[in-house]
């Protein structure tokens, strides 16, 4: 039931009006990941994703331990699955996603 309730919230947040307003973020200290609704277009990442699954992936960018990375993400159950350009992968619980406050 919890999964079913989270999916509409995530979809509504990503599909709301305005390009930057569609973004969601996760911040933990100096580390951050920004999720966008734009289709994944990074060739280095796409090569790491099964061709049949590529349409399900969207663009993301991350700053982790001071390094900037390009990634792509897809929703899986109650988490966001990330694939980074260097081959690293990760999961972020949907409950950690927030609408960014950009000033």
From TrEMBL:
Top-level taxonomic group: Bacteria
Signal peptide, first to last residue: 1-21
Record key words, sorted: Signal
Protein name: Uncharacterized protein
Organism from which the protein derives: Pseudorhodoferax soli
């Amino acid at each position: 039931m919890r999964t079913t309730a989270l999916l509409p919230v995530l979809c509504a947040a990503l599909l709301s009006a305005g390009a930057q307003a569609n973004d969601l973020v996760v911040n933990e200290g100096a580390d951050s990941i920004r999720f966008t609704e734009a289709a994944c277009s990074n060739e280095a990442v796409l090569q790491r994703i099964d061709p049949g699954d590529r349409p399900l992936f969207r663009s993301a960018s991350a700053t982790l331990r001071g390094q900037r990375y390009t990634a792509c993400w897809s929703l899986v159950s109650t988490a966001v699955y990330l694939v980074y350009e260097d081959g690293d992968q990760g999961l972020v619980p949907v409950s950690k996603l927030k609408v960014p406050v950009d000033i």
